[in-house]
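Troubleshooting: if your tokenizer reports a length mismatch, compare your output against this known-good record of 178 residues.
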Amino acid sequence: MKLMFISDIHGIKTNLDKVKEKYNELGCDKLVVLGDLYYIGPRNKMIDGYDIEAVKNFLESMKDNLICMRGNCDSEVDISVSNFPITEKLSLIMMENRDIYITHGHIYNETNWNKENSILIYGHFHIPFIKKIETNYYMNPGSISLPRENIATYLVLDEKYATIYDVEDNIIMEEEIK
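Known-good structure output:
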């Protein structure tokens, strides 16, 4: 199984065509969205590409292969108008011999996690990373729309590797998962 993770779209459609292109090109099985779907928030200026309807249409076009988490900016209204399930707080994806825990990151993250021998993947911080701390892996795909490190990124996870790409097709980091 191959999973693609994106996070923190915040209503910005700019890189979603690239996400769909890479999803298909890489032969991914599921698109996992780690929350903050539509709302840009009061701290961010309105930017080109902000188009909630386009984001909603993109997500609905992927709904048969979509796993979606609720972020701290996602409201009850957002959930009610979305024609795909949005999961609260924490979910589990089972891959062969590996359990992958997914969340937005504002509640569970590397500073608030106590399950050993696990993989926790979350967004929220808009900074991409792959870290191994003791027996756990912690991964963040960064933000596909509002990156804090200047380039939009996404994560691809298969049975052996976690790879973070930027939208220019560069590998930002890669880790063999053991």
